[in-house]
Amino acid sequence: MSGGKDDMLLEVTDLSMRFALRSAPFKPKRHVHAVNGINIRLRQGETLGIVGESGCGKTTLARCILRLLEPTGGSIKLNGRDITHAKGRALREARRDMQFVFQDPYASLDPRMRAFELVREPLDALTDLPRKQADERAIALLEKVGLTAAQARQYPHQFSGGQRQRIGIARALALNPKLVLADEPVSALDVSVRAQILNLMADLRAEFGLSYIVISHDLAIIEHVCDRVAIVYLGRIVEQGAVETIFNAPKHPYTEALLAAIPDPDPQQRRRAADIQGDLPNPSAPPPGCAFHPRCPKATALCKQQAPEPRMLDGREVSCHHAV
Amino acid sequence: MALLDVRNLVTEFTTPAGPRRAVNDVSFAVQRGEILGLVGESGSGKSVTALSVMGLVDNQVGRVTGGNILFDNTDLTALPAAALRALRGKRLSMIFQEPLSALNPCYTIGDQISEAFVAHGDSDTRKNHQRVLELLRLVHIPDPEGVLRRYPHEISGGMRQRAMIAMALAYTPDLLIADEPTTALDVTIQAQVLNLIDRLRRELGLGVLLITHDIGIVAQYTDRVAVMYGGRIVETGPTAQVFATPKHPYTIGLLGSVPRLRHRKPGEKRTRLQEIPGSVPSIAQVTQGCRFAGRCSHSMPQCEQQMPPMRERGPGHDAACYWEGPA
Amino acid sequence: MVFSRILKSPKALTGLVLVGSMVLLALFAPWIAPYDPLAIDPVASNQAPSAEYWLGTDFFGRDVLSRMIWGARPSLLIGFASVFIGCVIGSLIGVTAGYFRGWVDAVLMRPVDVLLSFPIVVLALAMVAALGPSLINLILTISLLFVPRFARVVRGEAMALRELDYVEAARACGQRPFTIILRHVLPNATAQIIVTCTVFMANAILVEAGLSFLGVGVTPPEPSWGNMLADGRNNILGAPWLTTFPGLMLTLTLVGFNLLGDALRDILDPRLRGLHN
Questions:
Q1: Of A311, B51, B276, C61, which sits most exposed with the smallest number of CB within 10 A?
Q2: pTM of this prediction?
């Protein structure tokens, strides 16, 4: 059913991921809903940012989409093919089209492999390319991301953090994927090096027509690389739409709070972020109704009883009873 | 008279290749009631500077080999270990980046905060209990009675960092050193913790040395800023002025390379981020001249030969660079 | 790279010299030993060390030095062979169980737990009693003792490694599970495996000595350190050289392997490696 009208790359429908908690014998099992009924549509060439605080489930969501985890509910379609429960060969085939860039470039590269071997690994795994051609392609990719052929023979510990992340990106591109997921791709890097990687990602996107899903807690980075954004709170998307729409006029109180909490890097614009009170609730015992209500300045009795359904409002999808 | 006056501080690390300077000729001052931001990337020496001031540099790793640290006119580098210990936690306090690893998982929050009192010879349990409660209220911990009895893993990251701050405030110190206090926290919690530090500065007249790599935090919360690179301070001055007219190419690059929310209009094109080429040099590399020269677009022959001295560029605004700055 | 660091570490060097000299003794025993270790000389029974018999003679008048040198052979052979077999089988079980977890883990590790629950000597005695004493059977018995121990160690290592980003990265890029084990998990567990080998080598030699001492190991008159100790123990006061010297050899070998293992642990630990570069 692929092809035809749609250039729909990724369709995530009502995706859920529950983890069982360790519990005492004879007591009912408790679960954490790390991801709860998430819907995402991504067209070829689009970039989506997923924003949320630690523990909100954004990394679990990425790992489900990549099928490093098997979701407990809902479905994931990549290129029209259902990969929700794909296993073995089918799963590895699906990974031709989607690759991952890890957060920590120090931990995600095998210390015992040279740069070009690392980049070659996806080719070895999923193609029949002869070794010599695979080596050539690996080196060409490393040059594409700004490393030299001489550096291709070095081991990860001989590179700086930024260079390692370049290796990670080259590796993700080896199979010519359509979709690249990047989990906090620059948060482990030095500030002065982040711009290099973000620019590189932008260049590669333009050159290869890639789609990105970028997970980050940094709204400025999301604004910089993404067309669309999904704000996640406690496993649910609370607001989703075009970056310009949402960042210029947020409708969900949580999005507003996030935007207000970012310290503005201009000392002339001093405004103390409005204290958003309270902490993230415990995901294993989420508050009833809207999960955000204990911290929400607009919360009413309705919010405590009934979880809001997503609805369209001013060109974005928002889940709040009181958004206007 | 400045509360903390660090002059020409040098801290050396022992490496297999010989001693290397992690902090190299660093001078700065913190006044009472002021927040000084110390900005830099990993390896810039900002955390080592803080540990040097606290006298907490692990002597297996390195030690302070030069300069003076004047705290309220007492030179900490000349102080015997016992005298320094008596100051630490009482007049000089520090909070760390990762509150979970800085708290002992075996003791309750209440016990650990009282520990600060016991360490300084106040062992009246009932009185300490009262003081701990007051501290927890001071840092706006909801339900202080409950938190007192909890273990570190039972409370959230934001709560833990507040408990750490409460511990640091046990004796109302004169100087608070905060090393990346919010890096491990989420943005909404970050704002709470930073606002708390700022309020305490105002109410208690603390001098604060705030170490961070986040340009936004510097812009919003500091009065003055010192930018570190490769173990040296390359530029320092009033925050507003340094941000408005940065003089050192590294500062300029750093401010330009940080993505910021621009509230793009629909259909508006993305701007490209300004890049600083290359990567942060390791302290193992020894250089004669400016450590930034290799990445600098304005470098001149003399940059490689001799470290440029600090030069005044405006009232209280100094930069260590031969380049005259943007026209 | 590893070798140059061994040369720089006094601990490793001592261990290497001790183990190395034992290996040389065993290899060149026929040329080094002054007498035939089995030659009986009833006239020279229980003689104290002298110019003629450097380390004295035993009850049958056999040269202790020669027997001691020949005795290195079964000890080291059994040590190396059984650790090698135990390591290969145990590591494969351990890495498979640790990487896949779940039912694979359960199926593979339950027998391992059962084997581990027997005391070493009891299990070894039972095995040798069932199989009959011979060099091959001794090696098989001692290998079997080490299979579960290796499996345990390597499983732990594999469980830690499978959580690492780079192993997950290999999965994310479409790599097959067994290729991941061979390319990422095992190579990164080698340091731990090598260290474990050296420590278990000392154990294996000790078990061999113990079994020989109990009379179910190397059968007399073939010399081994264990049966030499057993022979000499009745006359430990009258002829202390009978027990002292084989005991000393055993001790030095064990110390050698333990020093080597200890030093290798530091040298091969990737977390400490950065400090050396």
A1: A311
A2: 0.83
